[in-house]
Amino acid sequence: MLKGVSFSLSSGMCAGILGANGCGKSTLLSILAGVQKPKSGSFLCDGKDLFKQPSLHAQQVGYVPQGTPLMEELTAKDNLLLWYGAAEMKKELDSGVLAMLGIGAFLKTPVHKMSGGMKKRLSIGCAMAKHPPILLLDEATAALDLVCKDSIAAYLTRYKAQGGILLLTTHDMNELDLCDTWYVLKDGRAQPFVYSGDIHALIQAF
Amino acid sequence: MKKTGLYFWLQLKRNLKMLPFVLTVAVALCVGLALVFQIVLAQDAGREDKQKFKIGVVGETEDGYLGFGIEALKSFDSSRFSMEIVEMDEETAKEQLTSGEIAAYVVIPDEFVEKAVQGEFLSLRFVSTSGASSLNSLFKEEITGVISDILMASQQGVYGLEQAMRAEDPAVQPGRTMDKLAIQYIDFILDRSELCQVEILGIADNLSMPGYFLCGLLTLFLFFLSIPFAPLLIKKDMSFCRVLVSKRISAVKQVFCEYAAFFILMFVLTAIPVSLLLLNGVNVPELAGFSGDMLPLLWVRLLPYVAVVSCCGFWVFEVVSDLISGVLAQFVVSVALCYMGGCFYPISFFPDIMQKIAMVFPSGLARSYLAGCINGSYSWFSLLGLLFYFALFFGAAVAVRCGKIRKGGSAA
């Protein structure tokens, strides 16, 4: 499905992967997250191929796929426990990433009783355990209301400002503003695209 | 490793959250199946007189020795516990066979006695309906054997000797001597060790009827017990599994942790009612004298049994992806497997080929293994079979999980 996709990003950059439905955006993120294995290729981070170093890969990359990557029957706290130690979670809830995402407010709420926005913030909170320098977001704010989108965008802006690398797929025009560089996936290849707010040009590129 | 342990612990927690619902279903199942068990034991089919198959005997039975043979069949032979002999004409026999009042009839040829006197052999004719085909082989083999043993062998011997005595001395009056001889013949034949009753009652695995149904219903209970876990085990959204893989909790580890947590609950929910049932006395002859100190061994032996049935349930839930189809699939698979495995009816009621298939079905194997546990004939063959099925279901569940995680296209 994907052939010869190649790009590079520096610290503090956000790249948007765009394209029509079924063009391979989720597959690309899934490969970069280590879920699917590519037949060939490399994922270089500071000169190290993460595809060949699974432990390092797991530390360096945070991944938020589409859907709800949480255990629905359990509380936010239980879900976080899988990724954070108890002490680490307390610290992050007091003044770290979990505090920034406002997860403390619904820590004891079971996931199935949470709103879409809460679930998405919790998913990002889980992905941010151990502060990975690369964050992959697959349509992270799809189907969320404007307030939720805004709070998540605010957090992602801070993440970028702290030197994090963001790679996101989206169909949301507002989210495109977060990005510093854009790629359109077409026929299995990633083509650089300059987004200037012209939606017709973007559609043409698809 | 630490993450995998944590994942297992969280899975256990998820399962425990479902406990009130699962317990409610388990209690309802226990009550329902206990009622079925009681009904099976109490209903007419369980009574001795209703267990008997009625067999018609057609033909001339006026002859003293032949009548004596038939009377012996009715009153003395061990087959009297399983069949009832009724003398009738062939027309009545046909009518009653068609209406199902008799299971079969045997025709004694007109010249049977005459030929026997001459030392010749005339075959008895056995008539049954094609609908009773599953029983035919049993009947033909056993009942005709009984009848021919008592009627033919004894008659030929008695008449043959009478003829020889008369040839020696035409004035001889064998009378009481021949009667004694006939009784001796029949005594020998009645000593037969092959008891028709055992086979025709259809009880397999050397179990009494209560013992057999206890094993069958317990297996059915365990299959059904998976159903309330459906909301936990059916995955509509694979995104969480994908995140786990990205954090090095592979599909094998995921399936293992989820299955292990599910298995623990299934085991506890099976071991508790079984233990209570056995300790508080259930009317099963094989379990007479069961005491508390035998429980640990029973629990150990229950482990592979519960492991296989729960792994089968786990696999079914892994294959489906929505709740309703999952519950339906589990129900259908449970009923079908239990039916084929002989959990509803004694396995010997089925044709030979079905009996052989049932013995290698997971449900049949599980029921048979449990039977071995309670009747003291613990079978390593059954245990190996269960281990094979466990590996098969577990491997299949892992394969399905891998496929679902990777679903979304291949990459070049």
Write the layout of secondary structure elements.
The complex is a heterodimer of chains A (206) and B (412).
Chain A: E1 14-18, H1 25-32, E2 44-45, E3 48-49, H2 54-60, E4 61-64, H3 76-81, H4 86-95, H5 97-100, H6 116-127, E5 134-138, H7 146-161, E6 165-169, H8 173-176, E7 181-186, E8 189-193, H9 199-205
Parallel strand pairs in A: 1-6, 1-7, 4-5, 5-6
Antiparallel strand pairs in A: 2-3, 7-8
Chain B: H1 2-17, H2 19-42, H3 48-51, E1 53-58, H4 64-75, E2 83-87, H5 90-99, E3 104-107, H6 112-117, E4 125-128, H7 133-168, H8 175-190, H9 196-200, H10 209-225, H11 230-233, H12 239-246, H13 251-279, H14 295-319, H15 323-340, H16 352-360, H17 362-375, H18 380-406
Parallel strand pairs in B: 1-2, 1-3
Antiparallel strand pairs in B: 3-4
Helix pairs in contact in B: 1-13, 2-10, 4-7, 7-8, 10-15, 10-17, 13-14, 13-18, 14-15, 14-17, 14-18, 17-18
CATH class of the domain at 14-69 and 127-205 in chain A: Alpha Beta
Largest sheet of chain A: 6 strands, mixed
Query: Which bin fits the share of residues in helices of chain B?
Result: 55-70%
Largest interface: A-B, 40 and 26 residues
How many strands in all of chain B?
4
Sheet with most strands: strand arrangement of chain B:
2-1-3-4
**What is the distance, rounded to the nearest whole angstrom, between the alpha carbons of the first and last residues of chain B?**
31 Å
Strand order in the sheet with the most strands of chain A: 4-5-6-1-7-8
- Note the gap between the termini of chain A: 16 Å
And the CATH topology of the domain at 14-69 and 127-205 in chain A? Rossmann fold
Order of helices and strands of chain B: HHHEHEHEHEHHHHHHHHHHHH
Determine the mean pLDDT of chain B: 78
